[in-house]
Specification:
binds nicotinamide-adenine-dinucleotide; six-stranded parallel sheet; alpha/beta; binds zinc ion; 241 residues; globular; Rossmann fold; 10 helices
Amino acid sequence: MEKTARIRSRISNASSIAVLTGAGISADSGVPTFRGQDGLWRNFKAEELATPDAFRRDPGLVWEWYNWRREIIATKNPNAAHHALVKLERHAQSFILITQNVDGLHGKAGSKNITEIHGNIWKTRCTACGDISHNFDVPISILPHCKKCNGLLRPHIVWFGESLDPADIKQSMDALHTCEVLLVIGTSGIVQLAASFISAAKGAGAYVVEINIEETPNSYLVDEVLAGRASDVVPLLVNRD
Ligand code: NAD
Ligand code: ZN
């Protein structure tokens, strides 16, 4: 059987499906990846701005960068890959979408059971009282302050050097230990987490498929590699109806 058909049949026969997405799935919507050509802002690398240290030193600069990213993301729409995952969720008995993306495009497409392990660019968190709120301002006023306690707000995003929310990890790991199929879409694997998620799923017997435009350090861990753009490949894996 042809590879795509084989994978499609594994997916349609699976009662539990997990999906892990990274910046690559949103690249086809025009949202730059960090390591792609458009990932730079004023010659800063993301690793120099998305850190607690950078925010402590110059919160205004970090917020300016997020305003630039908000401006880009606000004009973008989900692509065929995001939409295909919505369809997949509708037909699966059990489905979880774990995303490293902060752009909110999976929610905009209509996915329901999403765990945003790196947070969401449209949410703020108060550095004083911890309150998390939605904020869709483009641009957000610099510096933004908490409506409840007037503390300084930061993006509700997991920065380099910070830990993921243990509740998100547990929820993800529980799903990975029980899923029959795991799709890993557009994630570089430079972020160590993807590898441990894949190992958890494989260790529990899942069939793991990677979709990426290039080979990654995870490619050797998975059962099948589908080379191509997410927006071309993912729709082929979901049964038409
Ligand atoms: P990354 O930028 O390190 O890697 C992106 C991966 O996607 C690469 O492996 C690349 O080969 C692949 N890719 C690029 N275009 C693709 C396409 N059209 N189809 C399929 N694959 C494609 O991203 P990452 O691994 O997700 O890690 C960077 C971190 O930065 C993320 O965890 C996220 O928190 C953050 N980030 C988020 C966004 C977003 O929300 N859209 C964008 C940039 C960075
Ligand atoms: Zn507050």
